[in-house]
Write a structure and sequence with these properties.
Blueprint (H helix, E strand, L loop, with lengths): L6 E5 L9 H8 L5 H9 L3 E2 L17 E5 L4 E2 L11 E4 L3 E6 L16 H8 L9 E2 L2 E2 L8 E7 L2 H12 L4 E9 L6 E10 L7 E2 L6 E12 L3 E8 L6 H8 L15 H6 L8 E9 L6 E5 L4 H10 L7
Parallel strand pairs: 4-7, 9-15
Antiparallel strand pairs: 1-3, 2-3, 5-6, 6-9, 8-9, 10-14, 10-15, 11-12, 11-13, 13-14, 15-16
Helix pairs in contact: 1-2
Length: 318
Amino acid sequence: MLEAGETLVFVSDAHEAADRLDQWLAERIPEWSRTRIQALIREGCVEAEGRCDWRPRDRVLAGAEYRVRLPAPTPVDVLPEDISLDVLHEDNDLIVINKPPGLVVHPAPGHADGTLVNALLFKCDDLQGVGGEQRPGIIHRLDRDTSGVMVVAKNQSAMDSLAAQFQDRRVNKVYVAVVVGIPCPAAGRIETLIGRSATDRKKMSATPSRGKTAITNYRVAEALEGFALVRLIIETGRTHQIRVQMAHIGYPVAGDSVYGGSRKRLWQEAGGCERQMLHAETLSFLHPSSGERVEYTAPMPADMRDFIARLRGGRSIS
């Protein structure tokens, strides 16, 4: 792996003349995405014939020496914060954490600090950065009040590998949720479009005029008193996907004040819950360096276990 400040040197052959520069370099540095290489070219990090003002679409010169330099990542304007994290695994390429409910993933208006990114900047002293910045690579997100497994990249190579796996649906994602009502049939496949709601731009909808395909497979794991514990495998990763689609078929996630509609009184009468009862239980993917499939599982948080116990009439949950 190329370290910041190092330089790679490539010399073109006569038969390679007229190839696009970004494509030619991508074939020689397969661990980098073409998008990343295009950015480096535009940033002047590719030198040939005494020039650094090349464009990605420029044609390769026959017999030219191309020097590719990876600059040091630029510090980001986000402060590290000492926030406790439940780390399931960590190595040079990535870190896997069990995100607690209530933790926002990325700084945003209204949440400038106290986020997972702030915590990772403090926790990981070996971040090589992504996108030319000294920051962790957030490949996927969990809603603030959703708990469970998340993987974060520490370098650009890991970021590119994991992002491609998420895009190509090679990542296996299993969630558990408590929903209002007992779904019938007890197992099924939900396939809809998901897009912004036409009436509330802060919400998503499973019946938009335009949207992206979303697929969720569910199975009732346990019928409870007026509720059900369901296990869900999602094939896509759309915003609020599980919450939107389970509400769409009439079984909203308990505690979901956004998509739960008039069902709020039901979970309040059942003992109440302060957030949506949704947990990312298992995440499986190919490790960026070894290529081996790895799997990580996060235990259900205490508030969700307690809510299920109340629905069982005090019986404990394993």
